[in-house]
């Protein structure tokens, strides 16, 4: 699975207006971090890197109850960087050799039940699909789209599990197990 660019995402959020680090974290978590919220340290280390690279600037500093609160704003270079990132297509992930395939082959080579591995994985996929379907029913449109994306990938995985289960005998012969 492709990893989301946190730096570009924070820059995109800043393009809608200057914000403090904690506001950026909250906006990120609300829009993109349902499953993996950002840690504050990740926000501030990313902002430090973006500042060093000239993609953001400190618009103001306010005293607070703790450390000073910096208000970040995107620079023209930052706007250009976000635009370039958005225009680049993501590399399709073909999953040409998944961990699951490796487990199936190793099970066959070590005379364990590859069918059991596939059955266990099928059960886990179906459990997650039920959970995402419930989440999708209760979610807003953004959450529905995120869940649909995951469900389509899980469905493709399930089809692969079924096909692999049907071909286990032939695979065992070909790898000499």
From TrEMBL:
Origin organism lineage: Bacteria, Bacillati, Actinomycetota, Actinomycetes, Kitasatosporales
Identification of the protein by name: PadR family transcriptional regulator
Top-rank taxon: Bacteria
Record SUPFAM superfamilies: Winged helix' DNA-binding domain
UniProt-listed PANTHER family: NEGATIVE TRANSCRIPTION REGULATOR PADR, TRANSCRIPTIONAL REGULATOR YQJI
Domain Transcription regulator PadR N-terminal: 10-80
